[in-house]
Amino acid sequence: MEIRTGDENFVLDTILSKAQNKEERPFCRVNTDKVGLLGHSLGGAASVMVGRSRTDIDAVINLEGTMLGEYVGYENGDYVFQQEPYPIPLLDVNSKAAYEETCSYKDREYVNFYVGKNAEDFKEVVFHDAGHLNFTDLPLVSPLLASMMGTGDVDAKPALKM
Questions:
Q1: What are phi and psi of 39, to 5 degrees?
Q2: pLDDT tens-digit map of 117-148
Q3: Torsion of Cα atoms, 141 then 144 then 149 then 153, to 10°
Q4: Would you give the distance in Å from CA 85 to the centre of its chain?
């Protein structure tokens, strides 16, 4: 996660610097007062971590990513989660299959549910016919590969318009 968040911070810093210097398009169109992050899977986990660590992020959308950065330890046979509430608006988007799987955990609380219960502003959306890769463009680029790796029954084009 250190590499992913480092990359995300580098890209974000570069975009914000170019925007503040009013460099060529598209940077001159960036509103540096309203910055949001969006990521899928491990990218979503990284976006959640970056959103917590920076003061210039206004909101985060996590597309089916386990919020790994919210784990802070493991004690007495159980995970320890970040105690400080998530500070900015956070939208957690999941497929029904992933949501139901995490609801079935009997011996522990799923980290995303913990974060949601304790966040300052948290929303959750579950798409019933989607699979993990329906939150990417892979089903359009390579339907066979995407179906092998996990898509739902939803048609790829309308799914991306959701």
A1: -150, 155
A2: 999 999 999 998 888 888 888 888 888 888 88
A3: 90
A4: 17
In one letter, which amino acid is 38?
A: L
Coil/strand/helix, residue 79: strand
Residue (of 130, 128, 126, 79) closest to 105 by Cα position: 79
Q: What is the pTM of this model?
A: 0.90
Query: What CA–CA distances, in Å, run from 88 to 37, 58, 123?
Result: 11, 6, 11
* Under 8 Å between Cβ of 56 and 27: no
Q: Which amino acid is at 144?
A: L
Task: List pLDDT tens digits, range 10-56.
Answer: 999 999 999 998 888 899 899 999 999 999 999 999 999 999 999 99
Phi, psi dihedrals of residue 108, rounded to the nearest 5°? -160, 160
